[in-house]
Amino acid sequence: MTATLCIADLYGLGGRLSSPGMLTLAAKIKQLGAEFVVLGPYDQSAWEQAAADLDRRPSSDLIGAVGYSLGANNVVEIALELGRKVHFLAGIQPSFWGQGVDWSGAIAVPPNVGAALCIYNPSFVATLGLGYARYAAPERFSGSLDLVATDDLHPDVDSDAGVHGLVLTQLKRIAGDGK
Question: What residues does each domain of the chain span?
Fold first, then answer.
């Protein structure tokens, strides 16, 4: 039997108006099959609600979160909030101006995360910090972390089919591995 993979989807600042690609990504995740469940999309500021909704999922479910811009910062906050394993996090251009970012632009991935993917733009000047932050693996982190640098500018990267493909590939791998 295949485990259910439940993903919370978070918009960036401005919700659907500024992050329509997150709604498209949610639909693409659902198209992967019945074992893929998407909660949201949530406004990026509703990350605590997303965490509570994920926490209510059965313990047999694999859980994760994907977010864009400030939503990418806040999926890390979801993992910090949960007292259980988070099988997958994906951040699409986290913001230097959001939660959890140190002076270098790094956001530490918590040790309860099994796999993380971060797509970011390494040019602070090109993004004015929007999309510049990136996930980092602290010493206690034993999961996998994939960093993908892109020159995509911040607006519309949430609608990039290539970015969606990276997230979908990781989700299929995690669902297949069951861990």
Answer: 5-177
